[in-house]
Write a structure and sequence with these properties.
8-stranded antiparallel β-sheet; 15 helices; 14 strands
């Protein structure tokens, strides 16, 4: 019988060798991508938790505000209202005389109070710090003072602060301005002051993009993991397998949504967001208003408690033309009536005109009526009214913005859960909960697989694993890293730092291994 046996053919051996080599290469790439995914997840997990929890609070800030601050924002409807200007006067009686009216928000409904925003003119503003507001509430039916609060106080204020890592509050660094490079006249400052915490958030956000991309790669079906389900949770298996399936399913299903949230959120960051704004304005400029303007911009009134639409920040506030030397500004009540007749969305804010002196001449500002934010793209609107006549100087909407600005505003409306109403809010809620679930299942995976008494943290890839990694995979990852580093320079610098630390640690390990290899066997016992 032994004589009937034949040796394997050369073709068979060649195929077998090729398959073994391919499996070894795939396993090497998987091992290294998994290590990358683990360490980024460990680094990004605290930020993801903070963003998800604070995002949920911001997403439901309106109902939360109505509940937590009902004594301030809710009133009993009455037959008649007190003139709006009298309400403003009543509010000013309860703040220091030096405070100035920043904006007035008439009631958004019959059971809502009037809000008067006042500012301390001596308080630091952007870029030195975050412009703060004191919000004073008045009953529109009785003119009674209801109370006041700091806009950064309470649960909602804290969530807004944390979600953007306190903006420019705290230590700052000066970073190069792309706008100054491409349009020095429009952006005279060569650098952008950026809060260190906000910059850290920006860098982490891009690393989260890498986390999502590596997670998708690990999930992607391949021959060496043919038994792994794609869109199914093996509940009966229990332990790490169950948490792994749930982790993968949650991450893959939400990946596209989360990538959209990260990209739209980056447009708000202090550094990359400002550079993106300058780039968008140059590549796809908005329609300019054919009217004399003041030195002020609408972005000067961008507050945490009263946001201005992203695309409207750079809008210059038009100038008013007095009819004569005795011309008097219109009242808030007059402007409110005009805004209502123009179909502004209830809840709009009336920003008072600010006059300035240019070359010894007085330049009179105009009233700016801004629709409440967050808003749908179709609701993005600012009505500029002559402070003396009430005539509409310009009606700024999203239709006048450049293509990139409209795209950015759309992304922000999706990010805030407003663009498609309740459906968008449900999607945002699911995304926040999904992030928390992914972090929790990732932790449980690590906890259940770690060896007893050890950390279970992945070690550096071995020389064999590095040697088995296909050159094509290395080139692909390198190109992707370079592209991300160019698009997001702060991330690029952080990546170079990580690579430098990795190189130092690698060199140290090799030195230790070489020293150990030089010690003769048994020498340590002498």
């Amino acid at each position: 019988m032994g004589g009937n046996q034949t040796a394997p053919s050369s073709d068979y051996l060649c195929v077998t060798t090729t398959l073994t080599s391919t499996r070894r290469a795939d396993a090497a790439v998987l091992r290294r991508i998994w290590r990358l995914h683990f360490w980024i997840g460990l680094f990004a997990a605290p930020v993801l938790i903070v963003l998800a929890l604070s995002g949920l609070v911001i997403l439901y800030s309106q109902p939360l505000d109505s509940w937590l601050s009902r004594d301030l924002v809710t009133v009993a409807p009455g037959p008649d209202t007190v003139p709006l200007d009298a309400q403003v006067t009543a509010a000013l009686q309860h703040v220091p005389d030096s405070y100035e009216v920043d904006a007035v928000t008439p009631p958004s409904g019959p059971d809502r109070s009037t809000r008067v925003d006042v500012v301390d003119p001596t308080a630091p503003t952007y870029p030195d710090g975050e412009a703060n507001l004191t919000q004073v509430f008045v009953d529109p039916y009785t003119g009674r003072y209801l109370g006041q609060r700091d806009q950064l106080s309470g649960l909602i204020g804290f969530a807004n602060q944390v979600h953007r890592m306190f903006g420019n509050d705290g230590p700052q660094v000066q970073l190069p301005s792309l706008g100054h490079l491409i349009a020095p006249s429009s952006y005279p400052e060569a650098t952008i002051p950026v809060g260190i915490a906000n910059l850290w958030m920006e860098v982490t956000a891009v690393w989260i993009l890498v986390l999502l991309a590596s997670g998708i790669y690990l999930w992607w079906p391949r021959a060496i993991e043919s038994a792994k389900p794609l869109l199914k949770v093996r509940w009966g298996k229990g332990g790490r397998i169950r948490w792994r399936d749930l982790h993968a399913l949650t991450g893959v299903v939400l990946a596209v949504v989360l990538i959209g949230y990260i990209l739209s959120g980056l447009t708000w960051s202090r550094y990359w967001g400002e550079n993106w704004r300058a780039f968008s304005a140059q590549v796809a400029p908005s329609t300019e208003v054919e009217a004399a303007s003041t030195p002020a911009q609408l972005g000067d009134y961008d507050r945490l408690g009263r946001r201005v639409a992203w695309a409207a920040v750079d809008e210059p506030i038009p100038a008013s033309q007095p009819a004569g030397p005795s011309a008097a500004p219109l009242s808030y009540a007059d402007i409110d009536q005009i805004a209502e007749s123009e179909g502004m969305v209830p809840g709009y804010a009336i920003i008072a005109p600010a006059d300035s002196v240019v070359d010894g001449e007085i330049v009179y500002g105009s009233y700016a009526v801004v629709n409440a934010w967050p808003q749908k793209l179709s609701e993005q609107r600012t009505l500029y009214l002559d402070q003396f006549t009430g005539q509409t100087i310009t009606n700024a909407t999203a239709a006048q913005d450049g293509a990139l600005s409209r795209l950015t505003s759309f992304g922000i409306a999706m990010h805030m859960g407003n663009q498609f109403g309740i459906l968008t809010r449900i999607l945002a809620t699911v995304a926040c909960l999904g992030v928390l679930l992914s972090v929790a299942t990732g932790f449980l995976m690590w906890w259940t697989r770690r060896p007893a008494g050890k950390s279970g943290l992945p070690a550096r890839a071995s020389e064999a694993t590095r040697a088995a990694t296909p050159r094509k995979a290395v080139v692909t990852v390198t190109v992707a890293a370079v592209v991300l580093g160019v698009l997001y320079p702060a991330f690029g610098l952080s990546l170079l730092l990580v690579l430098a630390v990795e190189a130092v640690l690698t060199r140290r390990r090799r030195r230790i291994d070489d020293d150990a290899a030089e010690v003769p066997v048994g020498a340590e016992t002498r």
